[in-house]
Amino acid sequence: MRRELRPADRPEGSTPPGNLPLELNRFVGRAAELAELTRALEAARLVTVTGAGGVGKSRFAARAAAPAAGHLGCDAVRRVDLAAVREPNVVEYALAAALELTDHTSRPQREVLMDHLGQRQLLLVIDGFEHLVDACAPLVTELLGAAPDLRILAVGRRPLSVEGERIFPLAPLDTADAADLFADRAAALLPGFALDDGNRTDVVEVCERLDCLPLAVELAAGRLRALSPADLLGRLDDRFRLLTGGTRGALPRHQTLRTAIGWSHELCTAQERLLWARLSVFFGQFDLDAAEYICSGDGLHADAVLDVLSELIAQSVVIREEADSVVRYRMLDTVRAYGADWLEVSGDTSRMRRRHRDWYMGLATWCELDWFSPRQARVAAQIGAELPNLRAALEFCLTEPGETHLGQYLAGTLWFYWAGCGHLSEGRHWLERSVELDGETEDGDYARSRLKALWVLGYVAILQGDTVPALAAIQECRDEAERIGDATAVAYAVHRRGCLALVTDDMPRAEELLRTALAGYREIGELNSSVLMGQVELAMAVAFQGDLAAAVELCEDVRLVCEDHGERWTLAYALYVLAYAEWTKGDLVRARQLLRECLVIGDTFHDLLGTVLTIELLALVTLTEGDAGEAALLQGAAGRIWPSVGLPLFGSAHYNAPHERCASDARAILGDARFESFVAAGARLEPGEAVQRALGRATASRPAVVPGPRTAHPAPETREPAASPTVHGGETTG
To answer: What gap in Å lies between CA 328 and CA 38, rounded to an integer?
Structure first.
């Protein structure tokens, strides 16, 4: 019998999976420090790497994390970068995103994190926390208390100062390694460059003038296209004498870095300094299109941005990163802060923040439209990559006088990401903040922005199973929309109210409201994922009332429209209903084919609701195929996922009946003990493992179970679908 591979069984030294950044150039030196950090993580569950800006803390921690996690037997290593997070309340959402944690419930995000991490043997790297210590310190303490197998490697300029923390101060490189780093980065600019008798003395002295700080050394090496090492030394030495009153001894390291950055800034052209300052409005990564739009004008033509940006990359001011053939850029936080100071001195910060906001408002608007297209998956990935900048735009709108309506619009426009990609909790945070603010109340665009935020808030609350605030938001939206004659908002409000009726098992009322909403959409010419999902929801309502043929007709129509437009997320739910219909007819092969496609789509969008509903129905199909053991295992896997979605099968008698029949029949075939053992085996699967198991692509880590007897098991005659795609995350909105 094959034994399940648990985290502790991982071969020592093997590399666990994770999200650590890829290294784009050679890591230099620090062999002893890397070994020492692994020993520190063996001795303490919280280790904080501290050091001056530019000393290389982030690169060092990322380099150490994977082998250390493998040595410690961790099942994964995850990194969260908080440098781009400015609001303390967003820390938990950033952490959840780094963990790829999807939770549809209304539980506090901290509770969700503790529950998730409590089941994992994980090394968590928290980088760039120093400006958020008051938020991070208690969070780290709570997480370590709730998760006995969790280890945290924190990275910042100061300690967290919590109990159990072990400080790991990182010093600059030694002189030999600093010179090696200089030569390596110089060779990337000047092929063939190497340390030799003619330049070694100058390079070594340059490094020593810079206290061997890696960032300062890299900035200096970036100048070799225009200067020789001897020229560098002369200019740098003059700069240090000027700023330090002629003192040539050891400089305070923060002053050394500031001086090195300032010196590099002085050597930039006027356009390079201008772009450097303007790029400081970005949070995290950015792309060329955004840089050209936001940073051009008033002395810098859009056509010149690429050339100037290339110069800043060559000088190590900007970092170029590439993943999946997509090139993006970022600035180290220390360099970015220097540029932000110059932008503030120039008096241009407010204008640039508005241009930044305008760009990301436009991006969100375009992506909302593009969601209903074959580019849906690409849209999801793009918004995920731009989330730090979108958060900054939201924060600007919700704190700047007169901008509230734009914050409401932006929070509402991102409905497809909040609901479609597993970010309900963060979406609700921004939506509630936006509607709580007193914005402009006159009719027109301002009022429509608030109405959109209200029905999206109601939608998100429904997905979380929080019906009371959902009803309040939807009713306010409908009342105000009817008052000002906004037919679009009325249709969405009626649609959401129909979803509430579906959640609460009031099928006649759900059918009435959903038909009314769909008629409203037709009247105003609205066609998008929301409209189609409303039709799927209507299919569920009529199916629950016994008319499966009508449900199939509705979902076949949805499938045709989705395929015509390249829509995938809503399509999955239509296929789910059609798979149930195939199961009732006894066509198990076709039912399984449709459910496999549902799983693939759900996994693409991190849609836990669609995933768990599909696994539940697959259990029923599997039982009918004669494998009661596998059916029980799939029910166990679904049981582990449901707490992250909400009340299992929504507490609905309609939804729960087929699940109970599957469990009862499997238990009768297997007996109580074997049934419970299969369920327990399924409950040990991570959601991703459960998906792979359900897809039939399980690997050697698949739990060893004894297959159930493959006896004939005819499809039960039942009129209720196994579950509905509507509650807690089914419909989309547009």
So the answer is: 32
Please give the Cα distance from 203 to 183 (Å, whole number): 8
Residue 71: Cβ-neighbour burial (10 angstroms; 0-12, 13-18, 19+): middle
Q: What is the Cα 432 distance to its own chain's centre?
A: 20
- Dump pLDDT digits (tens) for 359-382: 999 999 999 999 999 999 999 999
Radius of gyration of the chain (CA): 29
Tokens 């707490």, residue located: 643
Burial 481-518 (b: 16+ CB within 10 A, else e): beeeebebbbbbbbbbbbbbbbbeeebebbbebbbbbb
Of 266, 268, 288, nearest to 279 (Cα)? Answer: 288
Token output for 448:
């429509």
| Type of residue at 154 | A
Q: What is the arrangement of strands in the sheet containing 122-127, beginning at the earlier edge strand? A: 76-81, 122-127, 150-156, 46-50, 165-169
Whether residue 682 contacts residue 633, with contact meaning beta carbons closer than 8 Å, is answered with yes
By CB neighbour count within 10 A (0-12 exposed, 13-18 middle, 19+ buried), where does 279 fall?
buried
CA distance readout (Å), 145 to 69, 82, 115, 163: 20, 22, 11, 11
d(CA 295, CA 355): 8
What are the C-alpha distances in Å from 401 to residues 395, 438, 646? 12, 10, 37
Answer yes or no: are the C-beta atoms of 155 and 57 closer than 8 Å: yes
Contact 725, 573 (CB under 8 A): yes
Tell me which residue of 88, 89, 90, 85 sits closest to 127, measured CA to CA: 85
* Whole-angstrom distance, CA of residue 257 vs CA of residue 152: 28
Q: How many CB atoms lie within 10 A of CB 536?
A: 30
> Which of 96-110, 421-435, 639-653 is the least confident region?
639-653
- pLDDT at res. 482: 94
Q: Please report the beta strands in 222-318, taking only residues with DSSP state E, as ranges in sequence order.
A: none
pTM over 0.90: no
Extended strands (E) in 666-712: none
Share of the chain above pLDDT 70, in %: 88
Contacts 24+ apart (CB under 8 A), 649-652: 649/616, 649/723, 650/465, 650/503, 650/723, 650/724, 650/727, 650/728, 652/503, 652/505, 652/724, 652/727
β-bridge partners, 151: 123
Cβ–Cβ under 8 Å, residues 507 and 485: no
| Helix boundaries (H) for 525-652 | 529-544, 548-565, 569-585, 588-604, 608-625, 628-641
Q: How many CB atoms lie within 10 A of CB 227?
A: 15
**Per-range mean pLDDT, top range of 79-93, 152-166, 506-520:** 506-520
Rounded Cα distance between 378 and 385, Å, is 11
96 vs 239, more confident: 96
Residue 121 has pLDDT above 80, yes or no: yes
b (16+ CB within 10 A) / e for 315-347: bbbbbeeeeeeeebbbbbbbbbebbbebbeeee
| Nearest CA among 14, 40, 13, 7 for reference residue 117 | 7
Please name which of 152, 218, 211, 208 lies closest in space to residue 184, comparing C-alpha atoms: 218
- Compute the Cα dihedral for 514, 515, 521, 524 and give only its sign: negative
Phi-psi region of 53 (alpha: psi -120 to 50; beta: other; left: phi over 0): beta
